[in-house]
Amino acid sequence: MAVSMRDLDPAFHGAGQKAGLEIWRIENFLPVIVPQSSHGKFFMGDSYVILKTTASKSGALRHDIHYWLGKDTSQDEAGTAAIKTVELDAALGGRAVQYREVQGHETAKFLSYFKPCIIPQEGGIASGFKHAEAEEHTTRLFVCKGKHVVHVKEVSFARSSLNHDDIFILDTKSKIFQFNGSNSSIQERAKALEVVQYIKDTYHDGKCDIASIEDGKLMADADTGEFWALFGGFAPLPKKTANDEDKNFDSHSTKLLRVEKEKAEPVEADSLTRELLETNKCYLLDCGLELFVWMGRNTSLDERRSASGAAEELLRGPDRSKSHMIRVIEGFETVMFKSKFDSWPQTVDVAVSEDGRGKVAALLKRQGVNVKGLLKADPVKEEPQPYIDCTGNLLVWRVNGQEKILLPASDQSKIYSGDCYIFQYSYPGEDKEEHLIGTWFGKQSVEEERASAISLASKMVESLKFLPAQARIYEGNEPIQFYSIFQSLIVLKGGLSDGYKKYVAEKEVPDETYQEDGVALFRVQGSGPDNMQAIQVEAVASSLNSSYCYILHSGSTVFTWSGSLATTDDQELVERQLDLIKPNLQSKPQKENTESEQFWDLLGGKAEYPSQKIVRDAESDPRLFSCIVSNENLKVVEIYNFTQDDLMTEDMFILDCHTDIFVWVGQEVNSKDKMHALTIGEKFLERDFLMEKLSHEAPIYIVMEGSEPPFFTRFFTWDSAKSKMHGNSFQRKLTIVKHGRAPTVDKPKRRTPVSYGGRSSVPEKSQRSRSMSFSPDRVRVRGRSPAFTALAATFESANARNLSTPPPMVRKSQLYPKSVTPDSSKLASKSSAIAELTASFEKTNNIPRSPKGPPKPKPETNNKDTFMSSKMESLTIEEDVKEGEAEDEGVPIYPYERLKTTSTDPVAEIDVTKREIYLSSEEFREHLGMAKDAFYKLPKWKQNKLKMAVQLF
């Protein structure tokens, strides 16, 4: 159905073209735009049309239209608002969801646009508007209801209005009192305080006192006495009397009615199915609290108006004051509407006309014209960012039965599809070290070991007082954070665990465990050296894909294969992964369509294979849900237009991003419920409340209040001071309201901002020492080069750390982030970065000697600046860094026989990724065939290849 622009009210021209809120008031039966400065101000005698336009991540605009009816509005004005809403929707393409909002019974979505509340004012256009704000301040009493959004209603200023179940706000000229009914919840009290703040700012210019009065605490303080004195003294409160607002509609049976000739007739059917709805008709679905109007795509504007009129008539009946009317268009039904049916197909084909350029392109295409370039290009897909500091410390365990086995550093990047793993990643947070503990389940892993992995990981989290974030990850659904933490990952077929071997033996299935001398095919993927994976796939031609590069080996024969759509970056990743999988063998490069017979023979002959890149679901716009678990049944309530303040410390919430979900657990949640957080996340995926085809194997994160990782807080405008406050929600909010903000916590300066795409901007001394603080038997360290470490060791306290363990390497991306922010742009040049590093060491007064090896001559004090400058300038701060001579930098020297990977007497506590730096210059040249200067000028992958050849990697 299309609407001519001539039929559209001029006030609606240009509406809904950009994200935001637009409001019209009905004046003399015509919509008149309300200025933005008056948004949220509603008059009881008027009717309004409200358009909310939201831009999704894909760039598409979504519309929600509401029409709000004041309690004193005329029936004619209300009817005009209803009709104008239908017209506005038709002009926007007929896809908007439309809501009827009645004063005092607004939907949660509508109230979320005007947080914390709306307080309708007396008067309206017909009565000439009574401007109450211009009069002398009058004492008013309000009742507040709601845990997530607050319905505020003015009631008679009398003791009889108070009760034990609700929260009341008494607004006097000099003080605002909040009276908390003894049966009200902590969350309701906290939300009501937001209303107190709103009243203070709106009606008192932010200048008045605030007092909290607890029901049942008689004359506990001066504020309590003053409060009751305003009511003529204390007296017992009456019991709350039931009224029509408290009636429950849950028992209302769902009825389907067909609208024909402005009359609604019942549809007789044994069960509600999608097939009952005809595209050329309108229907009413009466569910008690909700009355849906369903409009077929092929209905006229008049038919839709008639259906809305029939619905309005139905709501004028007795006991329907709380009912919400929601109008939906065929093909754009809400999840709530679909859930009312016994069966609803996953997809329904709806003919939706193309707009603008799309129409022109479609017409030309039918005429055989090449339309390339006419159609709107797909939005450029941004490379996903990990939003986590990648310079931390990683420990990995393989689960074997009921135990976990710690993997050595050389093996922690090789994982098997038949096994389960636990990883613990410790990284520098804003003011303390943060931890992420996760489980990874291979596709071929057994259920018993998956359960064991979850149990072992939960015990680790519990032992750390529930502070770490948790992750549950399945093979094939790994998030970017997982890949960025591991950096280089090889996923092998088969498994090493007892559980996998037992499964293979019992089921009598082939053991596919990877054999180095067997035939194996790897698909190489990733975005760079800090995020690259080699996935072993079936060694057959159909496993190939033109968009990727592959490694194929059989014994000592190694092929690399480049698809015709693969990039040079993909080919570089193959070289890097080849150094890890088959380091000492020369490969035979193969390009698509020019392969040798031997290559195809290893794959069992040629076969058809795909060419499109494997695309994962894109992250959707996040949606927040409050969780209620009752008798093992999970119920959720969506929080619209959410902010950090919606996260209540007594509750659990789920943030649904489609590709993964976060379960946020408040500090005040009891320990027993905290242990069930993962189960709640699994039930959410299973129930799929939004009918969005959620994968049961989507990553689940468990996030603890006060330790929220940056990849969670990025969805909010985050104030870490709020999440670190103590007390329940009400106590925290009261502190903020009384002081105007959350109290700041004195915290040590930890580090400069992190570039989440790679490494931190400037490595401070605090950052370096932090990487050593978590585990005395660390397996891997990252962050800076050994040469830099040696230099720093000269100026750090000997007691700060064990100097035999070189801290991590300074990456190029640490000093030169890929995306330079305004703050970090000052560090863009190498010289300024070196100057920053130099300055950080010049602040150190003591210059201790290295505890290992003979003492070296201490430089003259007056030559300190020159010494520092020359040392710092000698460092080339690049990814392919010149390391210098190790023994000249204070790094201990060990014989080659103790440093090689097969040593029977290995050296403990060294950086196993940099074994060569501990060689003397003579042994370095003897085994690696060149001096250190020449070696460190080589690309990183060539360095690794040479080291692997002599068992130093």
Describe this entry's structure for a reader.
The protein has 953 residues and is of the alpha+beta class. The chain starts with 19 loop residues before the first strand and ends with a helix. α3 packs parallel to α17, α11 runs parallel beside α26 (940-949) and α21 (830-842) packs antiparallel against α22 (864-873). 25% of the residues lie in helices and 21% in strands. It is built from 26 helices and 32 strands. The model is unreliable at 348-380 and 748-888 (pLDDT under 50).
Rg over alpha carbons: 34 Å
Number of helices: 26
User: What's the number of extended β-strand segments?
Assistant: 32
**Low-pLDDT windows of residues:** 348-380, 748-888
Q: What's the overall geometry?
A: globular
Strand content: 15-25%
Quaternary? single chain
Mean pLDDT: 81
User: What is the helix fraction of residues, given as a range?
Assistant: 10-25%
Cα distance spanning the termini? 68 Å
Structural category = alpha+beta
In which order are the strands of the major sheet placed?
2-1-3-4-5-15-14-13-11-12
Please describe the biggest sheet, giving its number of strands, its sense, and whether it closes into a barrel: 10 strands, mixed
In short:
With 953 residues, the chain is of the alpha+beta class. α1 (75-91) runs antiparallel to α5 and α21 packs antiparallel against α22.
Strand and helix map with partners:
Blueprint: E1 20-27, E2 30-33, E3 47-55, E4 61-69, H1 75-91, E5 97-102, H2 108-112, E6 140-145, E7 151-155, E8 167-171, E9 175-180, H3 186-203, E10 209-214, H4 222-230, E11 255-260, E12 263-266, E13 282-286, E14 290-295, H5 301-315, E15 324-329, H6 335-339, H7 357-366, E16 393-400, E17 403-406, E18 414-416, E19 420-428, E20 433-441, H8 447-463, E21 469-474, H9 480-486, E22 488-492, H10 498-507, E23 519-528, E24 531-537, E25 549-554, E26 557-562, H11 568-581, E27 588-591, H12 597-602, E28 623-630, E29 633-639, E30 652-656, E31 661-665, H13 671-675, H14 677-687, E32 700-704, H15 710-713, H16 720-723, H17 729-739, H18 765-770, H19 786-793, H20 812-815, H21 830-842, H22 864-873, H23 896-899, H24 921-928, H25 932-935, H26 940-949
Parallel strand pairs: 4-5, 9-10, 14-15, 18-22, 20-21, 22-24, 26-27, 31-32
Antiparallel strand pairs: 1-2, 1-3, 3-4, 5-15, 6-7, 6-8, 8-9, 11-12, 11-13, 13-14, 16-17, 16-19, 19-20, 21-32, 23-24, 23-25, 25-26, 28-29, 28-30, 30-31
Helix pairs in contact: 1-5, 3-17, 11-26, 21-22
